[in-house]
């Protein structure tokens, strides 16, 4: 009895297949292609800080009206390391620029900081990762009631061995949290660094992830600072393969100015 049922099912299935294909038919069966995700998933298993979205709903450009307060968050390059005097660092140059003439710039960057230290104090971070730094983090930036935040964490996460996904997720989380308070973020790219080739490749990977997601608010400086070997170019190297000379800081400042002046991300009145 069971054999008869199986034979009958086989005959019916074969008949359906033949009728669908047709004798000599060359038409291919329909292929169902899943739709592109509207918001690529991003997460960092080392951080519990609530969900966030990669794509922002705000329409660009963000309006920044005078007088305004800008906050710079980041590590040693944003702090000014390598520059001969603070005024020649990229933040020092920004403070003197005409575009920031009506802005007060608060620099809370600190040498050696990683993206973890910038996170909100409300985030729960794994014990094997740095804790947030109250004088240099999300809440500290909010104390200045910023109209614009500039993030610059160019290489430390990768240099100490953390993954590309961790660094990218932390930066995108910060961007999302500021956006929820109607605060635009300019995000600076990675910078070349004299480290192992596999780590240099990760810096490029980090850029390749963030660039399309941040879009018009991404300030790309990597290719302007790198040499043919993937290191920080000699004329921009302050001597340690990490920090920028005055000329290197000028490159970063010019790129920031270009992004602001384009009025594609922010419109500074």
Automatic annotation (TrEMBL):
Pfam families registered for this protein in UniProt: Lipase_GDSL_2
Annotated signal peptide: 1-28
Source species, domain of life: Bacteria
Keywords associated with the record: Hydrolase, Signal
Molecular function GO labels: hydrolase activity
Domain SGNH hydrolase-type esterase: 73-251
Name of the protein: SGNH/GDSL hydrolase family protein
